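Readers of this paper often ask what the protein records in our data store actually look like. Such a record has a labelled line for the sequence and another for the backbone structure tokens. The tokens are whole numbers drawn from a learned vocabulary of local backbone shapes. We quote a single record here, exactly as it is kept in our systems:
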Amino acid sequence: MPLCSFCKTIPPKFFSSARNDQCIVEHHPNLAALEKSAEAGCCMCAVVYNAIQRHVKDGKIYNTMDGKPVDLSEQINLRSTKFGAQSVCLGWADVGSMRGIEVPQDWDDAVVYDCKPELGMASDLKYQSDTVKWWLENCWGQHAECRKNHDTSYLPTRLIDVESSDPKLVRLVVTAEESINDPRYIASSHCWGLNMPESAKTVTSNFEQHTESIPLSDLSRTFIDFITISRNIGVRYVWIDSLCIIQDSYKDWTVEAAQMAAVYSNAYVTVAASSSPNGAGGCRKGDASESFFGPADLTWDEEDESGNKKTRTIRVFAKPAGHAVTSLSQDPLVSRGWTLQERELSPRVVHYSKDTIRWECACQKATLEFPWSDSLSFNNALRAFDQGQLQPQGTEGWYSDEAVRKNSFVWFEVVERYTKRSLTKQTDILPAVSGIARYFSKEVGDKYHAGLFESHGVIALIWRIVGKAEDKRSRHSEYLAPSWSWASVKGPAEWWWTLKQHKPEPVDHTFTPQILEMSTVPAGDDTFSILKGGTLRLKGLLVPVGAMWREQDGLEHDQRSIMAIQADGKMIKVGTITFDVPEEACQILFCFACRRESQFGWIDALGLASTEQGTLQFKRVGLVRSKEKSWWDKAVTAEISII
């Protein structure tokens, strides 16, 4: 559509972040003139006007910065900061925001859209479906990296067959009993919520009936959307956990839980109902007020350094009110523990977020608005496995083997993300991450114990639970993992940032213990899942703690200062312990050294409590940081066990 005279004056640099100043473009003289131009057919004015309308309340327009109403008679100005943020102003008051990205020179819109000023491209359901289908076909045909680990012979135990003479029916199939010519299937990722219909679950009593037929009317809105999407993109089978796993059979659950890595890593695509907190929300974006509006394509004819003419195009959308660059991290789905591995293990994911539809594979990050590439929309929300390739490890040990070191960074990142999420059942703490652990173990050839890998050595033990005391961190009410594992505590775990640097710090190996044994006892057949025991045997420096002092600045972090008496009788601080949980702030304590970095002299140690007086068996209760090397002169070399 043609642009008005004002929009034709917008320069390309307005949408660039590669500059050191802000760019201001004077636009229409007032809001009425802008509205008239939009109604006359200027697509860019329609975008600008829509951006302003997002901030109308009770007939007034409010400044996005201070929340105060603005003068509607002021001139329209477009402002772009040096950081690349584009805003709409009435006078100098921010009243809306836009986002523009340059269209690649070789890009041809694979899906044709009709820009309806009252609706916008992103709200067109056919455009959504066609774009998802194009992403899939492009990835499958062009991205060898995304196909390299795909096992074309794999099929889950059961699938939902969406092909039926009656579109209101689907059925559960046992894949070993079916003749399946096209093994492609969609895997689903969703929040169960508290309103999952019993009819949307397969149990022993309805299993046979489900193999005959399942009425769509028995299913949640989200499940119906999974089936609709599957039909729209031409994939016959869908895997949905509550329908494909027999929910009242613990035996079936344990068998199928062990298959999670295979189910998601071999799916044609995983469809994620990211914005829905339960089964009622579906795979839908939000309404028009929560979505991007547009587009407007702005073009400029330019010459390159060689004098060759080229046309540049910037595609512009109005952003939802209060919209951050990325809202993927704010979607309900990413707050759930089980869904982390569903996303990490899937070669391709389509996220139905509140603001847009996002595409994610190892080679491309895109959105409905910018289908060629939109990595900024995933900023601070990238998958851990996309940030570095796992490498088979050598045999030189953690400090010298670069592959092991890099792999450990990836695993630590996975654990840190996972432990920030929520689980309905705390007994799922290890099962819900077992798929990722199984994949990791297979890729790097490493042994796994209670959330930790053997090759990562003592560094893996130097985790801490973060957060304030009022966060109510606690041990689980029943045994789920040994105390040396982060999985033994309810709360977010993290490693010191210095342990995750790409270059290893120089260390004093005098303080590095020897791991004699790391073992766990599974409750069933799966060593990656539920445990009933575990032991860690170490040989290293052990020193008793004489006294502790609770400092005011440590009240909210469950910290204590570790005190020692000098030769002159004075009491000095020799370190700090952060307890894993508040109730374990005990007085009888030992410190067991794990590492000492040479540059600054910090010593990381485990805070241990004796499980039985007179023995060298302990349980971990916290993490110690000490800089008083002389205090460790009193340490003895001991073989200990931690349970």
